[in-house]
Amino acid sequence: EPEVTQTPSHQVTQMGQEVILRCVPISNHLYFYWYRQILGQKVEFLVSFYNNEISEKSEIFDDQFSVERPDGSNFTLKIRSTKLEDSAMYFCASSGLTGDGYTFGSGTRLTVV
Amino acid sequence: GENVEQHPSTLSVQEGDSAVIKCTYSDSASNYFPWYKQELGKGPQLIIDIRSNVGEKKDQRIAVTLNKTAKHFSLHITETQPEDSAVYFCAAGRFSGGSYIPTFGRGTSLIVHP
After folding, report:
1. Pairing label, strands A103-104, A88-95
2. Cβ–Cβ gap B43/A56 under 8 Å
3. Residue A96: which pLDDT band, with cuts at 50, 70 and 90?
4. Which of A45, A91, A42 is nearest to B9 (CA)?
């Protein structure tokens, strides 16, 4: 069964540092998403990406965040100048043209110290 | 925006019993309601979904019901097994083109005792 792959599985970074979280969506999917889940809380939408541009973003997705699809397979989330409150699980997801096959990756646990 | 409430936050049952998790939503324009199972250290996995033109859907031991008028939907798991133990999230939202951005409930931790 096709999978969304995320790397690394766990990232520890110092406050103020930049991090890049990587995702390989399912190969024929066209919509890509990032979500965040703070420990013990609900999954929250950050941003959606289609046709090489952001299609929607939440209030959480401020100027410290950016996304990129640098090549035909990767989809990245960059967090500039990380803060302690950025510590969370970050999930990537992808879906097909009609929203079919909506699949989440296993997540990257980001710990900011 | 959409607001999804989910109850209970914790549900403990004996193996073989049924489990019911309930959610309400606020946006009458929401048209797609997936349920996700999240095991420790993994991402949410879709287990069943329902669209707004359907009132009930069943897949083996799992069923989902939707009441559009009351804006609530429920997950029913029958003959629970220990491997059903996980956190379950409901979600609600609208498809816009091919994009779907669900609003999640807070999750229900289901514990099935052998």
Report:
1. antiparallel
2. no
3. confident
4. A42
